[in-house]
Structures are given as C-alpha cells and as structure tokens.
C-alpha cells in the first residue's frame, strides 16, 4: 500500500486483498469440513449410555448381571447403590469376583481389589472406576453413563491404595436408598 | 524486536537451507536453480513457447484432468473412512455418507461429479491432441500412453459405478460384464469362445466378477481395483506421460 500522505488503497491492492481473502476462506472452509467429517454423527458400537432396570431389582451385595454385556458390576451397600466398571486399572483385563474371599482378582497380573474398588495388592495403580448413574423419571430405571467416570486419587496405606468411601458416595456416582 | 535479526537467523539454519536451496537474486544461476531444485518446475518442460501454452491452443484439458484426478484421489480416501465393501452394508454406508456424516454428501458429490467430468475432460484432451496433430513424431509414444490413461479412466469410472450397491450399480455391472462375456475368444458367448473351451465359470466375465453373478466377490474385487490397483496404475502412467512431455517439449505453432 502507498504510504505517502493520505493512505489510499489502490485498485490493485484491493483486488489482491479480495483474492487472498478468497483463498483463505476456501482453505479455512475445507479445513473445517475435513475436521467435521472425521467425527461420525452416528456410531454402530455398543451403547455407552444404557438402562439396567430398577434399583429394587438389586439386593444387597454384588450383581454380576451386566458384567458380560456392559462391563459393569452393580453394588448395593447399606447406604445405596453404585455401578463399578469391571476393567482392571493396571492393563485393562476383566477381574473376577471371588465370593469366598470377598475380593476381585485380576487374572492377568494378580491385582486384588475389595468390593468398594480399593486396591489391596498387585500392580494396579488406581481404584476401579465408578460410572455415573441416575434414575429415569419416566420408568424409574437406572441409567448408566459408561463414559462419565469417577476416578479419585488414592492414598497409599499399609492395606493398599484406599479412598475414603464417603467421598465416593456422591452424586452422580451414587444412588441413595 | 529486531525482525531482520530473527529472519536472518531463521534463513541461516540448516533446517531452512535444506528446504530452500537458493535466494531470490535474478541471476542466470538462480534461474537455473529454480528449475533444478523445485519438483513442480522440474516436472514441467524447461522451455515452453508462448504460442503453445495459449488457452485457445491447449484448452487446458490435460491439466484439468490432472486436477480432477487429484481431487478424486483426495475425496476417495475420505469416502473410504466410512464405506465398507460388504454386500450387507455397502448401500447403508452410502446412505449414511449422504444423510448422516458431516459434509459426507459434499465429498461424495464432489467425487461423483469430478469422476463424470474427468471422463469428459480426458476425451476432450485427446480430441484436442488429435486435432492439433500433437500425436505426431516425436510424440507418438506419448499418444499411446494417453490411450492407456483413457482406458484406465473409463475402467475407474466403471468400477466405481458398482460401489453404491444399488439397482443402478447392479444392472450397470450386469450389462458391462455381459459385454465381456460376448468378447471374442475370452467370453463364453463371444465368437470362438465356446470353441476355445470357455465356460460360464472359466471365462473373462467370471474373472471380473469372481463368480457367475454380481455378488459379494464382485463388490470386493471392484472395490480393490477402484481404490488401489487402478489409481496406482494411473499414477505410474501419468509419471511416464509427464516425463515424455518434458523430454519431447510442448507441441504447438512454431
């Protein structure tokens, strides 16, 4: 642009600017459309938000009803109910429940968890995730959101990696009653 | 901030100098370097006459065909992210691309229209080369490469036709492969075919379809041809085509 005295945009500058703006708009628009294209709007994988029946269907203790299909355990204690994700926090195997010893044992590298998901031994560095749960107001069923997970920082004690239970029994990861 | 200092430092790094080999001075050496050190100019002929690159002479149909081929390769790769050549889901994948995937219909329509257009531009390019006599010596070999590229374009267009797996696709390929079955010597229904021992499960139609009817084998076969085999062949022949243009120079009025 000419800079002597009053600033004037010449015809040449103007068309050059329009041309470059057009190129920039084309590049930006294409980049945006490629970006959007990479995120599918419909997925054909297993549902990550699903219903598991009414709270009254779950008696005190552990339910393995959904372990195979949905990779969760449903646990009811004296205060209420939570959904724990059956994925070992070491390398992602599926642990088994041993009702005689009251522990989960991972078949891959021997991590040991208690019913609340605390790590009693083995290589697991963190506690079991718990998934968000809520009640459907229409049919009263429990809705589990598999992707919304509670993952507290554990404290190392002589019994293993622990988290205070009261801090885990909070919304939306716990259903009272 | 001393921008001169910063830019001097950037242009002095090995990283910069490894990519940009020479400066901007208008010297005979630099002019030669521009061609030697740039792959695009390197592919292009060293000298072209002003008259021979006029639009009214070339119609720019070869370059347009190349541009369309690049667009087709690009959008084709995008479509491959969502399309599976499985007879049970191929049609639904196309439906999803058209109705559900963001910008899916845009990319598919670009792919489709560019494909139709490329068949047209390749034909017009060859018509121009014929009318201007650009196929004559020393360019007769490049004309043959051009005929091969025309055939590859048509077969690419035809194999892509089957992939939507709808009625149009099914019957188009049924007709096309029946034509193959009527080919002399290699087709069961063609002249001398039956006499040479061609049967419905041994002739050229069977080879194309991987079966006796347009089914899963045909879909997978056409998909692999359309997405891998034919594009790779086009790229190889294009390389020879452009290299020949560089060696023989542009045709055109002297």
Short description:
The complex is a heterodimer of chains A (177) and B (254). Chain A has 177 residues and is an alpha+beta fold. Chain A has helices spanning 11-37, 67-70, 165-168; strands at residues 49-51, 61-63, 72-76, 80-85, 96-98, 103-105, 112-113, 119-121, 130-135, 142-150, 155-157, 160-162, 175-176.
Which word captures the global form of chain B? globular
- Could you describe the largest sheet of chain A, including whether it forms a barrel? 7 strands, antiparallel
Q: Which structural class do the helices and strands of chain B define?
A: mainly alpha
Radius of gyration of chain A: 27 Å
If you average the pLDDT of chain A, what whole number results? 92
Helices of chain B, by number, come to 12
Number of strands of chain A: 13
SSE pattern of chain A? HEEHEEEEEEEEEEHE
* Biggest beta sheet summary of chain B: none
Distance between the termini of chain B: 55 Å
Radius of gyration of chain B, in angstroms, nearest whole number: 24 Å
Give the class of chain A from helix and strand content and strand pairing.
alpha+beta
Shape of chain A: elongated
Uncertain regions of chain A: pLDDT < 50 for 5+ in a row?
A: none
Tell me what the structure shows.
The complex is a heterodimer of chains A (177) and B (254). Helices cover 20% and strands 29% of the residues of chain A. With 177 residues, chain A is of the alpha+beta class. In chain A, the strands form three sheets. In chain A, strands 1, 2, 3, 4, 9, 10 and 13 form a seven-stranded antiparallel beta sheet that branches. A four-stranded antiparallel beta sheet of chain A has the order 5-6-7-8, with no helix packed on it. Chain A starts with 10 loop residues before the first helix and ends with a strand. The mean pLDDT of chain A is 92. Chain B has helices spanning 3-12, 14-19, 28-36, 39-43, 55-58, 61-80, 90-99, 104-131, 140-162, 167-181, 204-209, 216-248. Chain B is globular. The A-B interface holds A 33-34, 36-42 and B 78, 81-82, 96, 100-104, 106-107.
């Amino acid at each position: 642009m000419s800079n002597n005295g009053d600033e004037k945009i010449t015809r040449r500058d103007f068309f050059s600017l329009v041309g470059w703006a057009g190129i920039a708009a084309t590049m930006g628009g294409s980049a945006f459309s490629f970006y959007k294209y990479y995120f599918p709007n419909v997925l054909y994988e297993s549902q990550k938000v699903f219903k598991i029946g009414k709270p009254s269907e779950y008696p005190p203790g552990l339910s393995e009803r959904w372990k195979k299909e949905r990779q969760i355990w449903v646990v009811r204690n004296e205060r209420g109910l939570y959904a724990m994700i059956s994925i070992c926090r070491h390398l992602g195997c599926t642990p088994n429940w041993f009702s005689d010893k009251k522990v989960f044992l991972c078949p891959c590298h021997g991590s040991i968890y208690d019913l609340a998901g605390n790590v009693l031994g083995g290589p697991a560095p963190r506690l079991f995730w718990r998934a968000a749960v809520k009640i459907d107001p229409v049919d009263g069923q429990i809705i589990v959101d598999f992707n919304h997970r509670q993952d507290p920082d554990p404290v190392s004690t002589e019994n293993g990696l622990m988290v205070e239970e009261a801090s885990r029994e909070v919304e939306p990861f716990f259903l009272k009653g | 901030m001393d921008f001169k200092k910063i830019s001097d430092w950037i242009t002095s790094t090995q990283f910069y100098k490894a990519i940009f080999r020479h400066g901007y001075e208008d010297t005979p050496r630099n002019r030669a370097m521009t061609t030697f050190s740039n792959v695009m100019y390197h592919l292009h002929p060293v000298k072209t006459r002003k008259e021979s690159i006029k639009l009214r002479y070339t119609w720019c149909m070869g370059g347009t065909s190349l541009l369309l081929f690049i667009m087709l390769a690009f959008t084709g790769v995008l479509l491959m992210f969502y399309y599976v050549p499985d007879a049970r889901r191929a049609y639904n994948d196309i439906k999803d691309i058209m109705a559900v995937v963001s910008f899916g219909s845009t990319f598919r329509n670009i792919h489709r229209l560019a494909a139709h257009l490329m068949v047209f531009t390749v034909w017009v390019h060859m018509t121009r080369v014929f009318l201007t006599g650009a196929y004559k010596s020393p360019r007769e070999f490049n004309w043959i490469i051009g005929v091969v590229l025309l055939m590859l374009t048509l077969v690419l267009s035809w194999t892509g036709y089957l992939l939507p797996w709808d009625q149009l696709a099914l019957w188009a390929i049924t007709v096309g492969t029946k034509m193959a079955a009527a080919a002399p010597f290699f087709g069961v229904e063609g002249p001398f075919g039956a006499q040479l021992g061609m049967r419905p499960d041994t002739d050229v139609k069977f080879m194309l379809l991987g079966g006796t009817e347009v089914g899963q084998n045909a879909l997978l076969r056409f998909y692999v041809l359309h997405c891998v085999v034919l594009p790779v062949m086009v790229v190889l022949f294009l390389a020879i085509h452009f290299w020949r243009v560089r060696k023989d120079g542009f045709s055109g009025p002297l």
